[in-house]
């Protein structure tokens, strides 16, 4: 009770509060199956947001450092009762660098001042607890694994502006486990001991004022293009700031028939 309200409450007080909350919530508690099916029959656009990330998935994540449910796109079928063939688009949302909260392997984690710099620039602290997040370079191996098991049709690369001003930036393209080079996510024990294999790219000065892909520095576009190549998914949205308008959209993500990403990102692709 203290965690919820900040003070100790009696059972009677809590019961009264629950009754009060229930009066507000009951109108919104319905059987979602007919609701979703009616929307599908009308061909409405349905947007579902997944929790956490693939590496925290109960079945495919870095067990035991996982949650209790599925974090894959398939969760839309199991959780919302949407048939697999009705899923038109799967958008993988990633940051331009890696973050994690809590325990578990994180091959690209930066335990030095660079990690602290990313944390401060990106304000990487838990929204409710204020707990500092672990930060590191973009993990292309984990992102590609997520794209494969969830079937990403698009990538939304957020917080690109956090990397503004770095002389160079890095992308993890493989893991080294002793003499072996791995290009996919291994089991948890191996994940804890691998070393990242990085590609280093030139940095850039400023992206926060860009509102089209052409306004991004060439080096930032090259970074995004390499992410596309490593993950196998096209970048369709880029975040360059906290403001709602600080978003570069390359495809109409609400329209499954929208054409492929602007070649300004992927070059000749």
Structural features, described:
Helices cover 30% and strands 17% of the residues. It has 269 residues and is α/β, with parallel strands linked by helices. It has a domain at 87-263: Adenylosuccinate Synthetase, subunit A, domain 3 (Adenylosuccinate Synthetase, Chain A, domain 3, Alpha-Beta Complex). It has a 4-stranded mixed beta sheet with strand order 1-5-9-10, with helices on one face. Strands 4, 6, 7 and 8 form a 4-stranded mixed beta sheet that branches. β6 (168-177) and β7 form a beta hairpin. One of its GO terms (cellular component) is cytoplasm.
Topology diagram in text:
Layout: H1 2-5, H2 11-25, H3 32-41, H4 75-80, E1 91-95, E2 98-100, H5 113-122, E3 134-136, E4 138-139, H6 140-150, E5 154-158, E6 168-177, E7 180-182, H7 188-193, E8 195-202, H8 218-231, E9 235-239, E10 247-249, H9 263-266
Parallel strand pairs: 1-5, 4-6, 5-9
Antiparallel strand pairs: 2-3, 6-7, 6-8, 9-10
**Share in β-strands:** 15-25%
- CATH architectural grouping of one domain: Alpha-Beta Complex
The Rg value, from CA coordinates, equals 21 Å
| Low-pLDDT regions | none
Helical region count? 9
Taking the sheet with the most strands, its summary is: 4 strands, mixed
Strand arrangement across the biggest beta sheet:
1-5-9-10
Care to count the β-strands?
10
Output the structural class.
alpha/beta
Overall mean confidence score, pLDDT: 92
Succession of helices and strands:
HHHHEEHEEHEEEHEHEEH
Shape field? globular
CATH H-tier superfamily of one domain: Adenylosuccinate Synthetase, subunit A, domain 3
Main CATH class of one domain: Alpha Beta
Subunit structure: Homodimer.
Keywords: GTP-binding, Ligase, Magnesium, Metal-binding, Nucleotide-binding, Purine biosynthesis
GO cellular component, one term: cytoplasm
Cofactor: Mg(2+)
